[in-house]
Design brief:
This protein is an alpha+beta fold. The protein is about 30% helix and about 10% strand.
Length: about 290
């Protein structure tokens, strides 16, 4: 049985707020990853032992709801981490794997390696079947976390997801003026100078990411296919802190949120008007308006 000691440390929670992600090693058993990978292999209609059948750079498999996938997404370690990052009673358990993205070691442009964030809800003018037309807003409507479940060992060569560290803070400032309506297909080049990391790890590793984190796929330059699912964690209700933090002024003087996904947004918006650049009287006037 997993112990309660396997929860996120204060340092990991601060890393999530500041960097936009946290890596959870052995988040689910390798045995489940191995079983899941066999199911995904069958979906690809490729032969694991015959690389001549690996003739596409990327194959996306269907969503699966077999009990082993439900078990993998609901380990005690992950549920504890969800509580710490999103809040107890603020997230919905997952009952499926999410689509698996299998990247084969084929040196060919797959056309899907651009930097982006994952949209979370359809707007009035969106195509429900085309996620590229969906929107995302400052309240992170319909998405509590973005997650990367590694179902195979992933090193630097076999297509680890690229992450722009701290980019979620820049994105929060872009989204804030759009308020409830949110944005779709906006320019994330403002995050180009953010440090880069690679989402590597052993099978069973999960990356828990802030919904605003900018990331990108890449070509598999290794020798083995990479298996990864990218399901969202759905919220229950709206996030109060994120809803209130629609302007830098509303965040000034507020105590830190106890929910890290909200705290990250408030920190981002505070930076628009650093307290060091304002007089004491100006700060007091702002606080009285709250």
């Amino acid at each position: 049985m997993e112990s309660s000691a396997q929860m996120l440390t204060n340092e990991q929670i601060e890393q999530f707020i500041t960097n936009g992600y946290v890596q959870v090693e052995q988040a689910f058993p390798r045995e489940l990853a191995d079983r899941g990978r066999k199911i995904f292999w069958a979906d690809t209609e490729c032969d694991p032992d015959d690389c001549s059948t690996w003739n596409k750079p990327v194959i996306r498999t269907p969503d699966h709801s077999e009990p082993m996938f439900v078990q993998a997404a609901n380990t005690r370690k992950l549920r504890t981490a969800f509580d710490q990052l999103v809040g107890k009673g603020r997230w919905q358990p997952r009952f499926s794997s999410g689509y698996c993205i299998v990247r084969f070691p084929i040196n060919e442009d797959s056309g899907d390696t651009g930097w982006h964030i994952d949209s979370s809800f359809p707007g009035e003018d969106s195509d429900p079947n085309d996620y590229s037309t969906w929107r995302i807003n400052i309240h992170s409507r319909d998405r509590a976390l973005s997650m990367l479940f590694l179902f195979s060992d992933v090193d630097e060569q076999n297509a680890p997801t690229r992450i722009r560290v701290g980019s979620h803070l820049e994105v929060a400032r872009i989204l804030a003026p759009a308020e409830e309506e949110g944005l779709t297909d906006f320019d994330v080049s403002v995050t180009v100078n953010c440090p880069k990391v690679l989402a590597t790890g052993e099978a069973g590793t999960v990356y828990l990411c802030h919904p605003f984190l900018v990331h990108a796929a890449q070509i598999n330059r290794g020798s083995q296919p990479r298996f990864m699912t990218q399901p969202p964690l759905y919220p229950i209700g709206a996030f109060e802190g994120a809803s209130k933090a629609t302007s830098p002024i509303e965040c000034i003087g507020k105590e830190a949120s106890s929910i890290p996904i909200e705290e990250a947004v408030c920190r981002a918006l505070k930076r628009e008007h650093p307290s060091s650049a304002m007089s004491k009287n100006t700060q007091e006037r702002m606080q009285r308006k709250q």
